[in-house]
Amino acid sequence: MPPAGFTAVYNGKDLTGWRGGDTIDHRTLLAMTDEARAAQVAKWNATMRAHWTAQGDELVNDGLGAYATTEKDYGDFELLVDYKTVPKADSGIYLRGVPQVQIWDYTEEAKFTLGANKGSGGLWNNRAGAPGKDPLVRADKPFGEWNRLRIVMVGARVSVWLNGAQVVDHALMENYYDRATPVPVRGPIQLQTHGGEIRWRNIFIREILADEANDLLRAKGREGFTEIFNGRDLSGWAGALDSYEVKDAAIVCKPEQGGTIYWNQVVADFQARLEFALPPGGNNGLAIRYPGTGDTAYVGMTELQVLDDNYERVGGPIDPRQAHGSAYGLVAAARGYQRPPGAWNVQDVTVIGSTIRVELNGTVILNTDLAKVDPATYMGGSAHPGVTRAEGFFGFAGHNDPVRFRRVLVRKR
Fold this sequence. Notes:
This protein has helices at 26-31, 34-51, 210-218, 296-299, 312-315, and strands at 7-8, 18-21, 52-55, 58-61, 67-70, 77-85, 90-95, 98-104, 147-154, 157-162, 165-172, 189-192, 198-207, 226-227, 237-239, 244-247, 250-253, 258-267, 270-277, 283-290, 302-307, 345-352, 355-360, 363-369, 392-399, 404-412. It is mostly beta strands.
């Protein structure tokens, strides 16, 4: 029986709910025509069903064939799974179709150069030296015994426990297919086959909703931050204060008003963490190294867009460099990682020198160096004289919509 709140992914009887799969970006599969997708899945199913069997409470693979892949796609989740394998086998679990939480023979000396001796549970397809690539400890049990994995994925942030020991701590999972593109926001769970028998049981999953996901993100990495908004009033802030108000512990831009407000301390390199909620079609921005006067998108280092991801439904077409998280008019952010209008989002912004990194709900959607952007490519040919500004204020650039901000923290670097 699954634990409270969890659902069994394997029913203990047959392969219902599973299809075949392979190492392919799930977005590539979804982009196929219905006919092409069905044909591809049929090919995978043929080889998967030839090598996977339901044996009571165990789902068994002989080391060959396509991967057992959930028919259902998942966003944020907690996954529990037991596995037992054999010497020299090599396997893993793909998260949203992305490789992988590694499972292998930690005694196989031929693979020590690949990290096998460090044990299972790491995000093996992360780049060398990246957090999560290697497990924090080796926690594998001897062959013949069952191992238990617990995996929590929020955005691209992954934590893994193997046999009760934490082996990955809130590490960003890289997209194996294209490291410049984030992992998909949703995708299947895949059990990889690779050269030796592996048995699986007690495969249970719990989908994590937005409020819990925000709590998990908010709890990590808080050291060194200063809370710059007290939740009651705009003490310590300057600028167009009359255009904003405080409601329910949030800073809110008044309808049909705008202008930039800012924390009245100069920052150079810094990290900001905040939560925001947008109305449908809502538009605002984060002022980065704002000088205190003028249009921050041009006279500041940049304005990072805060915009409804479905803005086109309300306001019409936009340039990709106007989408949420983008350095306005300069560099486009990845889209599709925002929560629905009205829901709270967690966002981290890191500014070091000329570089800016934006992490939205646990996924990095922008990681760029503005010094490398050719001025000839600026949107509309507009000059951005502030792009080289080395210091300034951090704040919000309102655009007439009641966008809300709360839990605003800054850490100077």
